[in-house]
Amino acid sequence: MCGIIGxxxxxxxxxxxxxxxxxxxxxxxxxxxxxxxQEEKAVQIRTLGKVSNLEEAMVQEKPKADSGIAHTRWATHxxxxxxxxxxxxxxxxxxxxxxxxxxxxxxxxxxxTNKGYAxxxxxxxxxxxxxxxxxxxxxxxxxxxxxxxxxxxxxxxSIAVIDTDEKGKVFAAKQKSPLLVGKGIEExxxxxxxxxxxxxxxxxxxxxxxxxxxxxxxxxxxxxxxxNEVNREETPIDTNIQEVTKDGYKHFMxxxxxxxxxxxxxxxxxxxxxxxxxxxxxxxxxxxxxxNVKRIQFVACGTSLHAAKTARKWFEELCETPCYIxxxxxxxxxxxLVEDHTxxxxxxxxxxxxxxxAALNYAKEKKYLGIVTICNxxxxxxxxxxxxxxxxxxxxxxxxxxxxxxxxxxxxLLLLACAISKIKKINNDKRANAIDDLHQAPDLVKExxxxxxxxxxxVEKIADKKNALYLGRGVYFSIAQEGxxxxxxxxxxxAEAYPAxxxxxxxxxLVDEMTPVVxxxxxxxxxxxxxxxxxxxxxxxxxxxxxxxxxxxxKIDKGKFMNMPECGYYNAPIVYTIPxxxxxxxxxxxxxxxxxxxxxxxxxxxxx
Length: 608
Ligand code: M6R
What we know:
Elements: E1 3-9, H1 14-23, E2 31-36, E3 43-48, H2 51-61, E4 67-73, E5 88-90, E6 94-102, H3 105-114, H4 126-136, H5 142-151, E7 155-163, E8 170-175, E9 180-183, E10 187-191, E11 203-206, E12 212-215, E13 220-223, E14 234-236, H6 252-258, H7 260-268, E15 272-273, E16 276-277, H8 286-290, E17 295-300, H9 302-318, E18 323-327, H10 328-331, E19 342-348, H11 354-364, E20 370-375, H12 381-385, E21 388-391, H13 404-423, H14 428-448, H15 452-463, E22 467-472, H16 475-491, E23 494-499, E24 516-521, H17 527-539, E25 543-548, E26 561-563, H18 572-591
Parallel strand pairs: 17-18, 17-19, 19-20, 20-21, 22-23, 22-24, 24-25, 25-26
Antiparallel strand pairs: 1-4, 1-10, 2-3, 2-4, 5-6, 6-7, 7-8, 8-12, 9-10, 9-11, 11-14, 12-13, 15-16
Helix pairs in contact: 1-2, 4-5, 7-13, 7-14, 9-13, 9-16, 13-14, 14-18, 15-18, 16-18
């Protein structure tokens, strides 16, 4: 799971490549590198850590060339190190950058070693460079050698290649990892994400699995898996992604938290009328098909999975439809029994997560009623591979920790529940309430930002702890899980969430004065039960921080009770998420972690 970019231009491409990598650091940031195909001798620079280190090295060396390729890495095979950083080369002639995983790397390593290739890194990627070189030495040109090489690879890859004998050209191949070709003026590009070439290219061609490309500054040629030239659809670059800046915020995550009112509005906009959801907002024919939904299977990972867990109750109440929810990484390994009329729903911010994608591909072979994707990236593979889809319209989410992606997914899931309930002609009043609540959500989220001051007062009391517990009941258990995930991934404090009723079955043993307990206590049908659970915490000396309503009966020091806005039944889970994001963000700031790019993680997890 890495970001790759290549450029062929009438100007020097070094800066273009580094800037492109910076925009793709969400895909990995443990090392970076590039190679510039200079006239005299190709210049390769690789650095450990973030792209800024590569940028510094570039300033010192000032290399110049009109074509080159670059890479930002999230280590899979081989530790993060300079030797394992891309590009990888073969015989000072072929250089490659690769995103994906080569599954038959052991066989290839043995085969290439026997041929006399000196393999210098622990990566599976380096083998691709040697294979291309080996195939080229059998009399093929670079493109033919690349095509032949891919026939010998098992796994997923997007690859960009330069050949020092072919100045001014970049070659590329795609299989199960995203790759596009960008078209500019007197320059062309290959990249993992349109974001990397926003502001440079005017449009792009999404490559399909099995495609190859050859670009120069003036030409783009795309070939299908049989090696014949093909046309792919040209898509203009979305002008909204031209500039992704922090807009004066300290971090992208902070900006993305505070963008949520607008993001949620965009998720709902144009999809509802007064008290009703519009037909076919998931695509042509979707409403008619939803008539037959008897069950729903959700798959997702991480935050997106929490969205499914939160939404389950809405589907059960509004559509009277039972739901199954699986970790995408586990789903296909349990040989799921698929009952008739089951709708398969994938949730993913990126639409590229390998585990979710693999689940989707598996589901295609089963007798599901159809596949719906809820995602934020319209050009994503999941969106293209599904029968129906809805885009969450959150705008680019750069911080590794999902914030606006989650709340807009909740909005989209509620729209899906409404769409199914509408076509089934059931629960009309509840549906009208749900839609009304969705419209109120942006203002309530705005109101919840007012809690920041109060949260600031508890930040230091949590920032110096090693562990934290999050409690909730019903849907608020899923929100508590999301809150705990936020805290652990950006502050590195170990945080776990439990349904409050489970506490006495084990986790209560963890409660002491060193373990803050964060509880979500909206006034719902479970609040009385929750209050007794919280008493159990208090009587064991635990420090409680409670988010609840003004009328709450919980007896707790005022400083530790965060007064939430009065929410509706359907928008409360969205609103209760916000202070947990702010809490995690402020705690991480206080601990000084790299919270837009937390250690060991990447935003888009394109390996299984
Ligand atoms: O792009 P996806 O929504 O498919 O990503 C799935 C998870 O990797 C992601 O939700 C992750 O858990 C969050 N970024 C954590 O904040």
